[in-house]
Amino acid sequence: MNYQKAWLDYKKAENQSCPFGEMVFFNSDSRVVMSAVEELKIAFTAMYETDIIARKVSAEEMEVLKEGILLRISGDELGKEGYRITVRGGMALVEASAPSGILYGVFQLLRKLRDNTALDKLDEAKLPDMPLRMLNHWDNMDGSIERGYSGQSFFFKNNEIIIDDRTSFYCRLLASVGINAAVINNVNVKGPATELIAERYRGPLKKLAAIMEFYGIKLYLSINFAAPMELGDLTTADPCDENVANWWQEKARELFTEVPNIGGFLVKADSEGRPGPFTYNRTHAQGANMLAKAVKPYDGLIIWRCFVYNCQQDWRDRKTDRARAAFDNFKPLDGSFDDNVILQIKNGPMDFQPREPVSPLFGAMAHTNQILEVQIAQEYTGQQRHVCYLIPMFKEILGFRTYWTEEKDTVLDVVSGRTYGHVNCGMAAVSNTGDDENWTGHDLAAANLYGFGRLSFDTSLTSEEIAEEWARLTYDNKPEAVEVVTKILMMSWPAYEKYSAPLGIGWMVNPNQHYGPSVDGYEYDRWGTYHRADLHGIGVDRSSNGTGYATLYHEPNASAYEHIETCPEELLLFFHHVSYRYVLSTGKTVIQHIYDTHFEGYEDVGKMIALWDSLKGVIGEKQFDNVANRLQIQLASAREWRDVVNSYFYRKTGIPDAKGRTIY
Q1: Domain 499-540+577-653: which topology?
Q2: Percentage of residues of the chain with pLDDT beyond 90
Q3: Which CATH superfamily is domain 137-461 in?
Q4: Using one digit for the tens of pLDDT, what is the confidence trace for 474-499?
Q5: pTM of the full predicted structure?
Q6: Active site residues
Q7: pLDDT value of residue 96
Q8: 264: phi then psi, degrees, rounded to nearest 5
Q9: CB burial class (10 A; 0-12, 13-18, 19+) of residue 88?
């Protein structure tokens, strides 16, 4: 086996016997329920050295059972994916209205048993908070991964689909945290990836989709909007051309008929060189709806990314603002999209920076399905060489009040469907996995994969609860390890933000690769990613006197962002060009804040190293070395960030550090 078991590495329960005996009963032998039975067998063999005996039972038999675990599908009050766990004496009942709920309930029962939860504390009922809980893989057919930091793809190699034991285990990992959808290929669809919807890959796709189906996961494909031209004999991809629509309808009929577990398509169009409806003077609604009609007979979904902006911007132009692009392109189209189209909106208006304001699109489109897109691949947060636990960021985003309605107005309300009654909505994450033995390169990066799934299923969980839970499952419930790992995870995002770009301005990274500091790396480029630092101040004026971006928010957010005095200071430089001598609420000037936070961020990494060193001999040597080695890489990088950023602004301003520290 060339992969680790991550948080599903069941270990022997010390001084405990199996609390429910050896029998598992079920009243449905669907594929997903049988996956739940198999999980119980794997877990109980490892935990209790018990060989499970599983048997299907009738309704009459269920009524007289006294001991064992009963997996029962009954009623419809728990929806398609909810579950209820009830323990009475030596009997544990996992109940659901559909097979996926049984599987999720079994994984929750096992989590609690591994955590040594008392039997009288096992009862619970839960419906998932998000209808769609999706991973977006940016895997390429040649085996590479765009923005991948944990090896090569385990889906593709040499333009072929890989199906092996790792495939099934990955599906187990996803199902264990409640993920119910996965896009397997990169949104930048080129070359052989365009053919994924063609006959060439139909056989292996069918096998892959079937494996995912065993675990309640729908398979999605990223598609090339120009496929009718590249695969067919058409000379156009115009969404209003009848021949184009017919081509897509026929392709959808073939694909959805032969691969029943396909959920739909993810589309990146008119973005960063990808083809789309703008080529034909059509709207995004016309492009998306044409595809939506093709997949609708099969209950398919079209997920349409809103990452559309001018990537040929003149840096001299101070009015054009990339941050406005998604809102300007899509808000006027509210109500124009078919009901099986979902707009996938990045959490912020730019591109997964360590700190951005929440996109103003959330809540602004009352008649359009929306899904929140985040990134657990750490493209701008240390690329899985740095520890940066992102669940606290996601919690902040979900809790942001949009004020578009008088109640139920948070991002969570919007993307869970509570605000406008939508059912096609949810949360997606750009995945951080690859074929490295530990799946995520950095052992601690697995907390982001685990955390995304758990958070999207149960948003009431706190960031710290998720971190502790993951640490217990990963480090064998050792109290010292759980405490240290949780501390490191919880301090990691604030530390990264301190030693990277200040006060929400973002970027300042090396172009293209996006790792390490380069303050002016994107300052005179075409990507719309500017900080506008000069002799006197820094920041982009996005007030009504500048690009007007702040006005896109609903009140009172618009007014708060409009004025320097009321703008949240962690976003100050995103919204305003501010003097280096401007005094923050802490009593520090902007320039002193820059100096201090960069020194503090570096020092925080040193504290993480000291914490981790305390685990030497407590956890396995391999586990210890994986993180210890990467923390040294992070320390060196944080030092580089500190010295490059501080030196840049010292040389730009001539203002010395009030504390007299070395700045170069």
Answers
A1: Alpha-d-glucuronidase, C-terminal Domain (3.90.1330)
A2: 97
A3: Glycosidases (3.20.20.80)
A4: 999 999 999 999 999 999 999 999 99
A5: 0.98
A6: 272, 351, 379
A7: 98
A8: 150, -160
A9: exposed
